[in-house]
Amino acid sequence: MKQKIGLGIGLAAVLTWCLLPVVWIISLSFKSQEAITNGSLGFLPAEGGRAGWANYADVLQDEQFRRAILNSIGISLIATTLSVILATLAAYAIARLEFKGKKFVLTTALVIAMFPVVSLVGPLFDMWRTIGIYDTWLGLIIPYMSFTLPLAIWTLSAFFREIPWEMEQAAQVDGATSWQAFRKVIVPLAAPGVFTAAILTFFFAWNDFVFGISLTSTESARPIPAALSFFVGPDPFSRPASLLAAGAVVATLPIVAIVLLFQRKIVAGLTSGAVKG
Amino acid sequence: MAAITMKNIVKKYGDGFPAVNDVSIDVQDGEFMILVGPSGCGKSTLLRMIVGLEDITDGDMVIGERRVNDLAPRERNLAMVFQNYALYPHLTVFENIAFPLRLAGASNEEVDQKVREASKTLELDEHLERKPGNLSGGQRQRVAMGRAIVRDADAFLFDEPLSNLDAKLRGQMRTEISRLQKRLGITTVYVTHDQTEAMTLGDRVAVLKRGVLQQLASPRELYTNPANLFVAGFIGSPPMNFLPATVTGTSVELPFGTVRLPQEKASLVPEGKLLIAGIRPEHFEDASVVDESKRERGSTFTTKVDVVEWLGNEAYAYIPFEADDAVREQLTQLERDLDGDTMRSQLVVSLDGASRIAEGDEAEIWVDARQMHLFDPESGDNLTIDLERAGRVPAKEDPEAAAAAEHVAEDAAAH
Questions:
Q1: ∠A232-A233-A239 over CA atoms, to 5°?
Q2: Chain B residues inside the 8 Å CB shell of A277
């Protein structure tokens, strides 16, 4: 009994620590701008300072913000899809084949993942302007992919290594081509890995700020995190805190949705029963 | 259905290690062929070369009329049951069995009809909608077999399918496999390291040692006419007893005394040379329970019995003896080849259940010397073999080629 009470208190402390900022942003997003400027310390909006859904309506009516959401969703989804497909093929080759330079590929991938993002911004800015993909979706998708591929390859190759060779050989004896064995047996078995890689990639792309703000100049490609920083409202000297809060909440929702959607696919122990063990 | 012919098959790995060396085996149409040997003898490699999962370095693999050396596994139309079953865990039992049919593009009705037929044969009907992860070992084994029998494969290949099951289930599945094979009448190649499975299942058995075929014969022929020490020690449980022996005329001097050898066997062996005698445990008996008429045909000796294991229908008595250095060396090497521990030199004697011999007794033991084999200690060859009833012995057919293969295998083992 004592233990349970202790556990409860501990959990409450951790939850408060983690969730308080999130909850506070939600609280802010329901207060009116005046109430925040005048100081409204309570969690629930004070009498008369209640804004209801007005902030959300304002944010969603903002043309810039709508474009930014669209940019973010589009860029992140495309980067995730391409990155996962490429990583799956690469990881499969790394897990299954013996080829020269395998170690080199893996180490290079790791080095790229550890490269500081900021140091690449300058060169990329110059290159993209010369090539002509500055301020386009493609200009963001490429760096996102190159930074998420290594992680995806490492995650997936670990998953592929776990799948017994026999699965594939059995499929080949059963009459499958190598491609059929890969698609019908190996990929379904590696599904938890594929979705883990997808979530990680999507996070990176969605949350990125540095590339988002440096490689874009207009709303034609600017993603949400960058767009929020440009969100100044009518008076440049007083930032519209309540609108920003509403914008932040809206920007978080897709991430929550994606995680909930993918989480169901990440079923641990999917391979159990394949072989005697 | 088809016959499988292997002609001088060689498998060398990248590092030059010869896993299979100049093996020729002809599996007749509808025959149940067993490949048996201790671990590392190349039996699984040979099976994987038949199915196409392993490249063939040299030789010809012919299935039916086709040379399949360069064909992919899916073009060979063989069905294989893997040691660990290799079921697809994300598919139901039904879809697991249906997998080969779906790949072949069969219609839904055909798939349904064939899968139900297979599941009925294997008594899997109530499990069709379950996932392999929820099945017991025996059920998984049956699903793996279902996947093999559902299509019209030219042959079945089994890679130690029973080694993951417990002893009781293994016995049941063994009979099951045998029954299924007889009913379907399909060519089968079955790999095992278990000599009981080899003896009970096979029409013919191929015994391999370090990638070299030792003997290819029916279980009875292997048992009564082993080609060499290795086959003699591998087949039979408890194993054959090996004793130092010297022949003079028709009498054989053994550590316990002298026994008489039939003239036709005595004429086959050199006189006065140290040999190894092989006598199976059941060819000994407690002299007091042997019929008078039978007693005439053998010899008796008196010795001290060390340990007795009474099993009801029979009893095993253990009698230690001293072996010559030369013989002991050969026997130690044999134990190594057979994957065993170095055993102490002792005689295992199978006694009738009615025998009253107890531990520590001085007992009179009768031995049927007509069943004795004599082996050359250097080469290990059986000198008293009846080649008419010994199936195929590569070492006798082409001694030079066999010797060359043995030499390569020994070289590789030495490194």
A1: 55
A2: 84
Distance of alpha carbon B154 from alpha carbon B185, whole angstroms:
11
**Which residues from A are below 8 Å from B166, CB to CB?**
none
Q: How much is the average pLDDT of B158-166? A: 89
Question: Which parts of chain A register pLDDT below 50?
Answer: 269-273, 276-277
Inter-chain touch A276–B133, beta carbons under 8 Å: no
Q: Is A108 on the interface with B (CB under 8 A)?
A: no
Architecture per CATH, B236-384 = Beta Barrel (2.40)
In this structure, which topology does domain B4-222 adopt according to CATH?
Rossmann fold (3.40.50)
In the three-class reduction of DSSP (H, G, I as helix; E, B as strand; rest coil), residue B285 is classed as strand
* pLDDT at residue A40 in the model: 65
* Chain B positions in Cβ-Cβ contact with residue A171 (cut-off 8 Å): 88, 99
Give the up-direction half-sphere exposure of residue A198: CA atoms within 13 A in the CB hemisphere. 21
Using DSSP, state whether B130 is helix, strand or coil: coil
Mean per-residue pLDDT over chain B, rounded: 88
Interchain contact, B89 vs A272, CB within 8 Å = yes
Provide CATH 3.40.50.300 ranges for chain B: 4-222
The most confident of A233-247, B104-118, B159-173, by mean pLDDT: B104-118
Domains of chain A: 62-230 (1.10.3720.10)
Contact (CB<8Å) B89/A271: yes
Query: In this predicted structure, what is the pLDDT of residue A227?
Result: 87
Cα–Cα distance for residue pair B30/B35, rounded to 1 Å? 16
Q: Which of A154, A158, A149, A151 is nearest to A190 (CA)?
A: A158
Domain with CATH 2.40.50.140 in chain B: 236-384
CB-based contact A164 B80, cutoff 8 Å: no
Please give the pLDDT value at position B79: 92
Per-residue confidence at B257, pLDDT binned at 50, 70, 90? confident
pLDDT digits (tens, 9 = 90+) for A244-275: 888 889 888 888 888 888 777 665 544 444 55
Measure the CA–CA gap between B272 and B380, rounded to whole angstroms.
Answer: 17
